[in-house]
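#structure-requests
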Amino acid sequence: MSLESKVLELLTPITDELGVDVLRVRIGGSGNSQLVQVLVDRKGGVDSDTLARVSRGLALQLDVEDLIQGRFRLELSSPGLEWPLETAADFDRYEGEWIRVSFEEGSEHGGAIEGENLGPEEDGFRIQERGREPHYFALSEVKKVVRAVDWKRVSRSKK
């Protein structure tokens, strides 16, 4: 079992209790200085208090279990807008949010479109572009999907 898997095993009860999804565990570094990076999120986002609670809980577990030899730094964060949506869980977590869908060059859909994520469906997702009917895309049709900012909605809310 890899070190990342062992850390995930320690982390899961903590994140389950707080209703948080673990997106990635990565361990790097060399010698006596290891960096443990954990990326978490949940529908509606993760606040700093929740991040702190996960961090404290995991740090205590890592100290008790003594999994990492020498010193380590724990870095806990949530993903930014450029985190790719690749699974049904991703599309569910960010349902209702604005997304940008990029296509391969030469695709019939053009370079990219933006719209509201209507959630996962079969092997893909549905998107509602502004002023158009909802559309389904299979994940195999797209190059990349990321969250984006709906600047029209932002500018309307400031008025």
